[in-house]
Each structure stands twice: as C-alpha cells, then as structure tokens.
Specification:
There is one protein chain. The chain is of the alpha+beta class and 390 residues long. It has a 4-stranded antiparallel β-sheet with strand order 6-7-1-8, with helices on one face. The protein is globular, with a radius of gyration of 28 Å.
Length: 390
C-alpha cells in the first residue's frame, strides 16, 4: 500500500481548469457559472496580535471551511483516477486530498512495481491538470505476516526528480495507524493516550466541592473522552480484552471522579450509577451500529459489495458456509456482519425507498389525519371532548 497527499489541495484549484473539468463532465451551464462566481471576486486579510492587515484579492482556490469546497475539489480531481482504469490489480481509495493505492500478490517486488507504475501514471495526469502531490508525505508499507520486515523500496520518477520511497513498519492514513501485520497496537495506544489527555483536561473542572455537576461531567466525558478513544473501533475490535485494558483503567478513573468515590469502590455499581456501560459493551455497540450502517449503503458502494451475498439460488449455501467459517479466517467485516445476524440472513432486512417518501413534496392536505380548524383552541378542545363522549 502507498499513500499520497495532494499538495495545498483547496488552494491549487484553478478557476479556468475547474471550468474545463465541469464542461468535460457535462454539467449544466448555470451550475458552472455558479461555481465560477463562487471562486471569483474574493478577498482576505490577516489579523495578528490585534493588528488587521489590508484586504487582498484572491482569484484562485476554494475557500476552506465552506461545505461546497470539498465537493468542488472532488469534481476537480476525479478525472485523474482514470489513469488506473487499465490496471485492475490496483485498487484506489481516497478521502478528499488523501489517496491510497493498494495491490496484492505473493511477491513483494511485483507489488512494488505495480504501485510504482500506478503512482507515475497518476503524477503525469495530475501535472497536466495542475495538480501536485506532496511526495515528501508519501508513505509505503508491505502488509504481511512474516517475521522479517521487507526493506525493498520503490523509486518514483517524475518530471522534476526521482524519489525513493522505503517501506515502513507503521503508517498513518486517515487517522488510523496501520502496521504491517494489521494488529492495530499502535493505533490503540495512540487513541488511548489521546483520550487520557482529554480526560485530564476536563478533570480540573470536576472538583467535588466547587466543580461541575455529575450530569455535566458525564456529558463531557462521553463527548470529549469516549468519542476520542473510540475512533476507528470497527476496524480493530475483535473481542480481545487485552487491547482495552488502558481504556478500562481510564474509564474507572473517570467514574470515580464523576461520582466522587474512593479508589476501593467497586466498578460495577459505579457503571450502573453513572449509566455508562463497560468498554467492551461500548465497542460491541459501535461495531454493530457500523454493520447496520453498512447495510444502508447504496448497492454499488465498495463496502456494500463486500457484504452482498450471492443470488437467491445460493443464499442458503452461502449462509451455511459463512457460519462454518472459523473466526480466524474471517475478515473484520465478516465478523461484524456475523455479530448482527449473518447466520439468519442479514441481507433480508427490510429496505426503504426513501425517494418515494419525500415529505417536502407533500402538501398539508395530503398528510393523513391532519386537519386545521379555524375556531379557537379552547372551543376546539371542547368540541373534541363532546365528540368523544358521544
């Protein structure tokens, strides 16, 4: 796997080039003019230590912070992935300006050559579109279970220079720390440390005599500590309780602070009193909710395709094969699907056609059982009671 980062993503979106991409995609003229107007006639100023600078004209780039900017950037860079259309062995994943390329084979050298050629093709297409990759942030890793790390790197030749990228033991992509054996030990340690720092920040506010109330402290813990520590849980939680020992110690300390208890107080009653479940139950809930959300994705979504069983002719055989499959041979996604009812056929859950139920297209007269009376509220209540007594 190799990861790429687009250099100065939003700032390098040129107005003329963006308009050309929109025309090639066949977007409407009104929408293209709206995009151009959104990117034109913008100004900015710097403020530092109470001093405000003069207005400066900005004629290129998408303003960061606007909800429209990520959509415009995705439109701007979508065509560069066409360079990989003739490489079915390469799978591309991207989130805004973070791009990941992955391939697999028994030979590490073959994987390296595939990724090297794919990156070079991406760079050529990107340069023609005035898109630059920050090659200094490029990371490369081999996923394997061998005891000896693979140290064979790749050389990426661009028009300006040749860059050698060496494989690493661990890389960070989209906030997830990935090691070559996919044990996620580094990620668990980082998330636990981040949650601990957040807990110590709010601990000063929860003094038993003059601090925040129990309700406020509990709300802060759930919003600022639990959310930080639980990032990426569906990717690594496999009911291995040795991985969550740090989270358990952190939650035990938080419960004592919230409830004002001694260190010798039992954990179970404190969890019941604070209405905070144990860590393993929280992580089970998060992974199962992820499985339910995955079932609601569009049928052509890459994640949804991985959990879609065969056609009706082989459904029962597919369920039996999945139930007999050992846990160690399952993927993490298969384990999550099994936890939410894979043996009973989770793909038979009721589906909804939301496009057929658009409440904004209805009028008040079309809503069932809704009437608006012109008489006053008190008289309407009296008439309703009289009708009920009859």
């Amino acid at each position: 796997m190799i990861t790429l980062d687009v250099k100065n993503a939003f700032g390098h979106v040129g107005t003329a080039q963006f308009a050309k991409v929109c025309i090639d995609l066949g977007l409407s003229t009104e929408l293209i003019y709206w995009f151009i107007s959104f990117m034109s006639d913008r100004t900015m100023r710097f403020a530092f230590d109470g001093e405000v600078g003069p207005l400066i004209s900005v004629n290129s780039g998408c303003p960061q912070g606007s909800p429209v900017s990520p959509i415009m950037f995705l439109i701007y860079v979508q065509h560069i992935f066409q360079a990989l259309d003739h490489s079915p062995e390469i799978k591309s994943m991207s989130y805004i300006d973070d791009i990941g390329l992955i391939t697999g084979s028994p030979c590490a050298r073959t994987n390296g050559i595939r990724l090297q050629l794919a990156v070079q093709r991406l760079c050529k297409v990107a340069e023609r579109s005035q898109i630059q990759f920050d090659m200094d942030k490029t990371e490369y890793i081999h996923f394997h279970k061998g005891h000896t790390p693979i140290e064979t790197g790749i050389t990426i030749n661009t028009d300006s220079r040749a860059i050698e990228v060496l494989p690493q033991e661990q890389i960070k992509w989209l906030g997830m720390w990935l090691d070559r054996k996919l044990t996620f030990k580094k990620h668990v340690e980082v998330r636990c440390a981040a949650a601990t720092r957040a807990f110590h920040s709010i601990r000063r506010l929860s003094n038993t005599s003059k601090g925040l109330s129990f309700q406020a402290t509990r709300q802060l813990y759930i919003a600022c500590v639990e959310a930080v520590g639980a990032y990426g849980v569906p990717c690594w939680w496999d009911h291995n309780h040795s991985q969550i020992s740090g989270f358990e110690r952190l939650q035990n300390s938080a419960l004592r602070i919230m409830l004002g208890q001694f260190k010798t107080a039992p954990i179970g009653p404190m969890e019941i009193e604070a209405a905070i479940p144990p860590i393993h139950i929280q992580f089970d809930r998060i992974t199962r909710f992820y499985g339910v959300r995955a079932l609601k994705l569009q049928p052509d979504h890459p994640v949804r395709k991985l959990i879609t069983p065969p056609k009706k002719a082989n459904q029962h055989a597919w369920i039996k094969a999945q139930s007999l499959k050992r846990n160690k041979l399952r993927t993490q996604l298969e384990n999550i699907m099994a936890a939410i009812g894979g043996k009973r056929g989770y793909y038979k859950l009721e589906s909804f056609k939301f496009q057929r139920d658009m409440p904004w297209r209805r009028t008040i007269e079309q809503l069932p059982g809704v009437t608006i009376r012109e008489i006053q509220k008190g008289n309407s209540e009296t008439a309703y009671r009289m009708a009920g007594n009859q």
